Amino acid sequence: MTRARNALIDLSATPYYHLIARCVRRAFLCGEDKYSGKNFDHRREWLVERMKLLSSVFAIEIATYAIMSNHYHLVVKVNKQTALDWSDDEIIKRWYQLYNGDSLVDRYISGEVLDDATMTFFNDIVSKWRLRLYDISWYMKNLNEFIAKEANKEDNCTGKYWEGRYKSQALLDESALLSCMAYVDLNPIRANMANTLEESDFTSIQERLLHFKAHKKDNKKAQLNPSQNIPQKDDPAHISQPTELKPFGGEHLAGTIPFSLLDYFELVDWSGRHVHPKKTGYISRSIPRVLVTLNIEETVWLEQVQSFRRQYANFAGSKHVLCRQAAKNDVKWYKGAG
Question: How far is residue 170's CA from residue 13's CA, in Å, rounded to a whole number?
Fold first, then answer.
């Protein structure tokens, strides 16, 4: 049974969410369409560019993404407090990057002095926009409508482009967040569309790896000069990361994903060598450090990164947190809790 979105997005429980949208047509969202003979890879660029633009406007950061042939995955973090702290002028500036705005707000921008009654209406408008700028549904609405319009224009047709409203999973604890991010980044590996992480086109893991390797030489050169007191390259505070993605850092670094970037690279590579039946290369006998830290068993982890979507429904996490969330929402249980 379809549930109201406000019953699925609970920012008091977690700011992290896994989002999925799927194309309704036989024609592909992107990639090679064997029916029409056309290639739609350029639509992947549309998606990546649009989601990054939206994240620069909304108080919503991208943790991971994967653009597949007929669907896409996103893991995002909603920064509600950031939006609440923005000034009215900041809210207006951001909203006007995407929408036409309002004539009353136009008068305010032009410098007109508004009387008290008019200011009440003005404040209501800005408050409404503020709420929308940290609303996942508004983020996804803008993203999907933009892609649908561009694809319809290119295909010279009208009608539905997406099969329905987007799917969401609330990631209730660190284990769920980490396994979901790896699940998203490993999509092309599991689908046998790529053999290595660097070949996994239009994924966040590819973007992070290429960025890291591009800046690795500069880091090494800096470390050759001890007088500059440059930290080691695995110091999370001094690893160069893509500015349009939420950075890794660890629990001691505010505003970062609570894991080390290099630990995440190790974990996803190790996982990929297990889940891809044809993937060659050395598989370390030792379990990645982050699994030891979080006390996650190897078999449990590999099951999660291969079947995360099947293992959980709208909420993901340990049995304890799932039971707690179910009780909070006055339901008997959530899938994955038992």
Answer: 8
